[in-house]
Amino acid sequence: MSTQTKGASEGMIFRKTNAQTGRHVSVTPQNSMMRHLAYGRVILNSSMPAVSFSAGGRETALICLSGRAVTKTGGREFELGQYDAIYIPRDSAIEVSTKSETDIAEFSSDVEDKYPLQVVRYAETSQDPGLKFSTGGPGSSRQLNMLIAKNVEAGRLVAGFTHSDPGNWTSWPPHEHAKMLEEMYVYFDMPEPAYGIQLVYSNMEYPELVTVVREGDAVLMPSGYHPNVSVPGHRIAFCGRWRRIVKLKTASLGS
After folding, report:
1. Which residues of the chain have pLDDT under 70?
2. I want to staple 141 with a disulfide (CB 3.0 to 4.6 A). Which of 13, 82, 136, 147 is the partner?
């Protein structure tokens, strides 16, 4: 299922962004509808155990989706486990390596100022009711985990992940916050045969995007409402990443 007008949907969906080993940046302002956000994946194993790159003029957040990794930056070294994250300031040299295998989501945004390096431990954020919480009602219950939010001093990046209950909607009731945020969903932890349906629309009669989403897909929401739903028996899971246009409270994200 995929229904959209070509012009409206171009630059909104990127498929199989987890298909390559090493570091691969799939979404940038140059190839998408994003004005500031970029997204990549760092997938390492015995065939490619390490990568190095520069943040340039962008603040960067790395979220460990699976496995274990070591991140070196700013003359320091940090080990990351599943759902741990690290905020890295602009103009940093970054090295990521693993002794086994790891899958890391890389998010970045242009930023003027330099903010402090910070490691975020999921073991700690998962105990904070302001960073891990359940929301929604019957048919739309889900669990939000904020990793780069009020707990991190950052310029514009906000990042976390959402797990729905099987067969449920997320981003429901439909809402939009284009005046506050650029937004992107990256689907993960949805092994076959799991899939979901993602909508993006300003006018429900003429949606910009109605499409199937699977593990590894990325959908961009430069504006409009953006609910999604998982098929019965399977949950939908995605990393949500936002670039704040204005300062806002974490609770206003409402994934």
Report:
1. 1-10, 177-180, 241, 243-255
2. 136
